[in-house]
Amino acid sequence: MKKHLTREFHTMGRMVDIYCSAHHDAEALCDDCARFLDYAEVRLEKCPYGEDKPTCANCPVHCYKKDYREQARTIMRYAGPRMLFRHPILTISHYIDGRRRAKHPRELSRDERLRKSADDQDSQ
To answer: Of 49 and 92, which is predicted with more confidence?
Structure first.
């Protein structure tokens, strides 16, 4: 995973930690929260936006299944306000990312797609 997506996953992980520790009686993540976090990681890796990914709230593509999308909404509503005090840098970065608009890969011109593909191959 690249830098931006890694930070996005790290932010999601901290939110799940906050939610799970408050709602489930477990020292570590419960099975349900761990399963959700694994699912979120897979979805981030397969995001069509790649490194230009907007925040999920601003994304026109709903890549989570309905049940997981509802679980993400519940987790984010609970953990979001608490993130500022526990993880202020991640929160501010997420807020800044939320102000960015990315073009959907299908909106890109042929030249932009080829340039992005070449950049992705060069970074590997």
So the answer is: 92
